[in-house]
Amino acid sequence: MHSIANVCWKHCVYWLGLTIVVGIAAPVSAQLSSGLVSQSDAAGAGLKRAWFARAAVNPARSQVIDWVLSGDQILILTDAGVLQAIDANTGRSLWVTQFGNPQYPSLGPDGNDQFVAVVNGSTLYLMDRNTGRIQSQRPISGAPGAGPAVGEEHVFVPSITGLIEGYPLDLDAPGYNRWFYQSYGNTMVAPLVTPHSVIWSTDRGYLYVGGSVKSGVRYRLETDDVFDARAAYQDPLIYAVTRDGELFAIDEEEGILRWRYRTGFATDRAPAAVGERLFLTSEEPMLHCVDAKTGMPEWEVPGIAQFAAVTKAYVYGVDRFGAIRILNIADGSPVGRIANGGALEALVNDQTDRLYLISDAGLVQCLHEIGADEPTRYRAAATVEEPPADDESDEEVEPAAAPAESEPDDYSAPAVEENPFAPSAQEGAPAEETDFGTGEENPFDF
Fold first, then answer.
1. Residue 237 forms beta bridges with which residues?
2. What is the distance between the alpha carbons of residues 316 and 350, in angstroms, rounded to a whole number?
3. What is the largest CA-CA distance in the chain?
4. What CA–CA distance (Å, rounded) separates 67 from 85?
5. pLDDT per residue as tens, the chain (446 positions)
6. What is the domain partition of the chain in residue ranges?
């Protein structure tokens, strides 16, 4: 009896000790499961967690479906029809806007210096970038295939049928004219707008480049596969990658293929061009670094599933287990690693040296190198002004100038015979004379 009592007492002490240990460890495990990087872990890798914030999402009822860095704002879209803007430098929530019908699918967001655009159902919404207030809304003529793209004068919305509609930014201006670009195939990836071009792709393997200031399709690239990722741009080159991992660099002005690079595996994330290097992840997973001007490979690192950011000396990515990986920019050699128990998604940041991460529960955090209190910018940031006072907030938007060579404002697509990019009735493919609009042989056909 005495021995049995001793055994029972030892078991009680053991379980009591286990309970105490678990109780002490609980906060750490909670931090890991949330995906929050601790300051001590960040400092051990030469980083500082600048801020963290919670997206305006209830994880039990909705989720974040897209987020982008737009200048000094992080724009976060949820499937409940909520758009939120967070200050990318401080983490402060700038505004939260409910739009449209939460039961309808939402696509976007994208923005310029003045506006942010989203699509809900078949309605286009434009919000004031500074306040989040809805400035205008307009039904679009077809079912949207992807989110909108905002230029200096127009917002472009892709229809699933391959029709790209360009709306002046003042959607409520009387008698405004829309632009129509017809392409071959379905458009399922958001366009990209540069100062001179609008770039979009279709599921038939075509990449189109049209004018963003003056209406007209300039040229197209024909490939053997579809595009699952949005194109990237660094003057003077457009970068586009197909699903099978073939990366193309096209001269924006001349429409000439400068180089191409093959990852060898499927790719569905946008490339990031920063300075003299271009970074691309494929699904092995593998992070590829190539020369942005020549396409010559510089290095490859296995295990990296997402590119996140780059500084003068280091490249940051996230592996398939949610750990942050730090690499030497010169040769890709490993420098550090921060383990993380949460599933993290990295924002493809080719604009600054900040590392932005988001968890499944909507926890957003920003990390940067110790001492780098001011962001290094690789391109000009969009200007965000302080929200106006209440008596100034309803000021009308100045109408945009009418675009040249635009189509009349009706809701019917152009007739096939008027559209040089419509499929041929006999061959079921684009007419030969429409390549580049010149009648010349398409140099991008392989």
1. 234, 251
2. 12
3. 101
4. 10
5. 444 344 344 443 333 343 333 333 334 444 445 689 999 999 999 999 999 999 999 888 999 999 999 999 999 999 999 999 999 999 999 999 999 999 999 999 999 999 999 999 999 999 999 999 999 999 998 899 999 999 999 999 999 999 999 999 976 666 668 899 999 999 999 999 999 999 999 999 999 999 998 889 999 999 999 999 999 999 999 999 999 999 999 999 999 999 999 999 999 999 999 999 999 999 999 999 999 999 999 999 999 999 999 999 999 999 988 899 999 999 999 999 998 876 789 999 999 999 999 998 899 999 999 999 999 999 865 444 444 444 433 333 333 333 333 333 332 333 333 333 333 333 333 333 333 333 334 434 43
6. 99-222+390-446
C-alpha to C-alpha distances, 207 to 161, 189, 238, nearest whole angstrom: 15, 11, 11
Structure tokens at 103: 């039961």
Q: Kindly indicate whether the domain formed by 99-222+390-446 is annotated with CATH number 2.40.128.630.
A: yes
Contact 108, 70 (CB under 8 A): no
Least Cα distance to 421 among 259, 185, 182, 150 occurs for: 182
Kindly list the distances between the CA atom of residue 428 and the CA atoms of 184, 256, 334, 368, 422, in Å, as whole numbers in the listed order: 9, 26, 50, 51, 9
Main-chain dihedrals φ then ψ at residue 237, nearest 5 degrees:
-110, 145
Three-class secondary structure assignment of the chain: CHHHHHHHHHHHHHHHHHHHHHHHHHHHHHHHHHCCCCHHHHHHCCEEEEEEEECCCCCCCCCEEEEEEECCEEEEEECCCEEEEEECCCCCEEEEEECCCCCCCEEEEEECCCEEEEEECCEEEEEECCCCCEEEEEECCCCECCCCEECCCEEEEEECCCEEEEEECCCCCCCCCEEEEECCCCCCCCCEECCCEEEEECCCCEEEEEECCCCCEEEEEECCCCCCCCCEEECCEEEEECCCCEEEEEECCCCCEEEEEECCCCCCCCCEEECCEEEEEECCCEEEEEECCCCCEEEEEECEEEEEEECCCEEEEEECCCCEEEEECCCCCEEEEECCCCCEEECCCCCECCEEEEECCCEEEEEEECCCCCCCECCCCCCCCCCCCHHHCCCCCCCCCCCCCCECCCCCCCCHHHCCCCECCCCCCECHHHHHHCCCCCCCCC
